[in-house]
Amino acid sequence: MANFSSIERNLSMLLTKFPLSKQAIKRVYLFLNYLLFKKKYRFKIHNNSIDKIEQVYLLKENEESFFGYYDKSPLVDNKIISYISNFSTRKIPNNNISIKIVISSLFSDKCHCIATTKSYNWQQGCRAQWLSDNLLIYNDFDDKKGIYCSKIFSISQMNVVYTFDYPIQDSYKDKYFLSINYRRLMYLRPDYGYRNLPQLPLSEIKNYSSDGIWRIDIHTGSSCLVHSLNDIIHLEYKEVFNYSLHKVNHLMISPNGLGCIFIHRYYKNFIRYDRLIFSNYLSFKVLIDFGMVSHCCWISNYTIFGYLRYKSKDGFYFIDVETGTVSECHKLNTQTNGDGHPSSYKHFIVVDTYPDKSSMQKLLLYDFRNEVVYPLIEVFHGVNYNNQTRCDLHPRFSFDGRYVFFDTIYLGKRTHCRINVSHLTLNV
Questions:
Q1: How confident is the model at residue 6 (pLDDT cuts 50, 70, 90)?
Q2: How far apart are CA 344 and CA 295, in angstroms?
C-alpha cells in the first residue's frame, strides 16, 4: 500500500516535539519511500467525467505559475487570477525579485499582466482575490512608507484605484477586509510571511496589546483593531500562554459576512498548539481547543468543515459555530489518510491529500448530502519541492461549481491548473 500507516502517522506526531529533526527525518523517509513505491505515471484521471487536466496559463520555458491558497476562487466572469514567477519556485522567495499578477481568459489564450509585487510566498501568493467582477485586491510593499499594504485594481480602468495601509488576509465582497501582521507570521511561520522588512525583534513579538486582527472598511478606509492578541490570549486563558509566543492566521469570513473564524496558534519550546475561534466582531468564542487545527472552510453561514483534533482523534469534522456542536465526517475519514485542504460548493467538498509513499497527491470530491466520495485525479509531487517550497494542491472551487483549480508540479514545475467537474456537481 502506498498510504502511510497509523503507526507512521503516530510517529510523525511524536516528532512534532522536535521540529528541526522532524524536517530532516521526514525528507529522507519520503525519498526512500518514493524509491520503493514510485509509480510509472505522473498523473492519472480517476473519473470518466473528467476529460483532461488543463493549464490555466500557457507557460514559457522559464516561467512557473500558481494561485496559492484554497480559500479563494481565482475565477470570476471568465477572468482567472494567476501568479507568474520567472524565478525558480524551488527556492525560497526573494524580496528583490517580483512575481507578476496576470489575468487570463477561461475560453482563450488572452492574458494580461496587471501588476507585480514583491510581497508574496509560494503557499498564498500575495492574497490576490476578487472583490467584484471588476475589482480585485492584492498585497504589496510600500517602499516610501516602509509598510506592507494592499491595493485595489480595477479591470475596467486597468489601474490601481486605491491603496490601504493594511495588507489583506480575507475580504467580504467590496465591503470590508480583515488584516493581520505579516511580520509576525514571518517570525513564527515564514511559509506565510513576507520578506521585505527586517525580522521583528522578540520584544515586538511579545507585544500583544497593539497587534491582532484589524477590520478595514473598503469604502471609507477606516480601520479598527477588532481583537488584539491580548484579548485572544485572555479568552479562556491558560497559564501556558505566559510562556508561549502567539499569532493568528487563516482568517476566513463567513458567506454572509457577519463573522469569521481564525486559528490562534501559540508556540512553547518550538512546539505548536492550535485553537479555532469564531468571532462576530463584537464577541468571540473558542470552538476547538484540543491542540491541533489544520485546514477549514465554510459550507454555510453557520457551519464549517475542517481537519482538526477533537477529543484526541484527528480527522474531518463539521462544526456549528452557533451551537458549538461537532460532528465527525466518518465517510471522508475512512477514504483519506489524513489532512487535506477543503473547498466547498453547495453540498460538495473537494479536498486534496498530501503526497503518499509514491509521492502522489490526490483530489477527492465528497458529496456530503448523499454520502459519496468521488476520486478525481492523482498527480506526482517531486521531492525537490519541500518545506517552504512544497506545492500543496490547494483545490478551490469556481463560484459556479463547474471547475476545480489547483497548483501542481507534476509537469516538473509549479503550474496553475484546472479540471471541469460540472458533470458531477451540476447533475447530482
A1: low
A2: 13
The residue type found at 91 is: K
- Structure letter (DSSP) for residue 125: B
C-alpha cell at 93: 522567495
**Is residue 318 pLDDT above 90, yes or no?**
yes
State the DSSP H helix or E strand holding residue 213, giving kind and residue range, or none if neither. Answer: strand 212-217
Q: How far apart are CA 57 and CA 64, in angstroms?
A: 9
The CATH class for the domain spanning 38-426 reads: mainly beta
Instruction: Count other Cβ atoms within 10 Å, centred on residue 246.
Output: 20
The per-residue pLDDT for 1 is: 46
Specify whether the CB–CB gap between 213 and 262 falls below 8 A. yes
Q: Please state whether beta strands 159-164 and 147-154 pair in parallel, antiparallel, or not at all (unpaired).
A: antiparallel
Q: Which amino acid is at 163?
A: T
- The tens digit of pLDDT for each residue in 136-186 reads 999 999 999 999 999 999 999 999 999 999 999 999 999 999 999 999 999
Alpha carbon distance, N-terminus to C-terminus of the chain: 32
| Crossing angle of the two packed helices 6-15 and 19-37, in degrees rounded to 10 | 150
Q: For residue 425, count CB atoms less than 10 angstroms from its CB and return exposed for 0-12, middle for 13-18, buried for 19 or more.
A: buried
Q: Which residue has the cell 483593531?
A: 225
Residues in Cβ contact with 317 at an 8 Å cutoff, skipping those fewer than 6 apart = 305, 306, 307, 308, 310, 326, 327, 328, 329
Residue 25 has pLDDT above 90, yes or no: no
